[in-house]
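Let us work through a complete example step by step.
Step 1: write down the sequence.
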Amino acid sequence: MAIAAMIASIRFNDRRNKREAFNGWGNSGKKSKGIKIEPVSEEVLVEIRNKIQRQNRITRIKIMLVIAISILIMTWLLF
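Step 2: predict the structure and record it as tokens.
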């Protein structure tokens, strides 16, 4: 009996069928207009990719430096 009540409660509380996408966003009708996608040139994509790779490389170097310095400090403190 308890399991049937639990399943009925879950079905009653399910709101996926009742809500609309982006309800209350924007000033036009209730239908979602979607996201406008503008075409981007291949050069811009290459620049973005290079910039992200550069940032990741710098982050990795910083992490390695912090690890190396912390290992040096720990060995110095132990001896």
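Step 3: interpret the result. Residues 21 and 32 are 6 Å apart (CA to CA).
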